[in-house]
């Protein structure tokens, strides 16, 4: 049985982003392209709707600290929700906050130009989860070591 094009694989946040993610900027509506004529006529921008879920699309720019290639470290994540998702963490620097995604899926795709193609993913999520203090998620082992250190 073949996997159809556009299949979205559910993935755990910790498996996809071992060092967590940093949100840069704010969540904004993912609007359809609006031509110059449409803008001149005063037509409002239409927000994109996901074909498979029917939910509105929102986008946010993120940076992955575990990505070794600087050019590929920042990209957009799409949220599929009826209302605009709100981050659950505070800013650590102006415009930057650690985040953790809920309902995460990955869709494989080919990126790059000409002979410089590489494997990439389109990430979609349904919202934000609370992040462990320190920016990234803690493994059970590091939490146990921290409790042992406090007890000593």
* Relative strand content: 35-45%
Radius of gyration: 18 Å
Q: Provide the residue-averaged pLDDT.
A: 85
Number of strands: 8
Unreliable residue runs = 134-152
- Looking at the structure, what is the overall shape? globular
Backbone structural class:
mainly beta
Largest sheet: 8 strands, mixed
Fraction of residues in H or I helices: 10-25%
Tell me what the structure shows:
There is one protein chain. The chain has 152 residues and is mainly β. Helix content is 14%, strand content 36%. Strands 1-6-7-4-3-2-5-8 form an 8-stranded mixed beta sheet, with no helix packed on it. Strand 6 and strand 7 form a beta hairpin. The longest helix is centred in the last third of the chain and has 12 residues. The N and C termini lie far apart (56 Å). The C terminus is likely disordered.
Could you give a quick summary of the protein structure above?
The protein has three helices and eight strands, in the order E-H-E-H-E-E-E-E-E-E-H. 14% of the residues lie in helices and 36% in strands.
List keywords for this structure.
mainly beta, 3 helices, 8 strands, 152 residues
How would you summarize the topology of this molecule?
Blueprint: E1 9-10, H1 13-16, E2 21-29, H2 36-40, E3 57-63, E4 74-80, E5 96-102, E6 105-113, E7 116-125, E8 127-129, H3 140-151
Parallel strand pairs: 4-7
Antiparallel strand pairs: 1-6, 2-3, 2-5, 3-4, 5-8, 6-7
């Amino acid at each position: 049985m073949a996997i159809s094009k556009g299949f979205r694989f559910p993935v755990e946040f910790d498996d996809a982003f071992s060092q967590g993610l940093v949100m840069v900027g704010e969540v904004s509506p993912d609007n359809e392209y609006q031509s110059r004529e449409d803008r001149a006529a005063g037509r409002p921008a239409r927000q994109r709707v996901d074909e498979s879920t029917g939910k509105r699309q929102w986008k946010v720019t993120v940076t992955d600290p575990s990505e070794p290639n600087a050019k590929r470290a920042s990209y957009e994540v799409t949220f599929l929700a009826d209302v605009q998702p709100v981050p659950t963490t505070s800013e650590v620097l102006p415009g930057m906050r650690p985040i953790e995604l809920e309902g995460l899926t990955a869709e494989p795709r080919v990126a790059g130009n000409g002979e410089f193609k590489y494997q990439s993913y389109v990430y979609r999520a349904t919202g934000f989860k609370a992040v462990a203090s320190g920016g990234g998620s803690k493994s059970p082992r590091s939490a146990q070591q921290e409790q042992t250190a406090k007890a000593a």
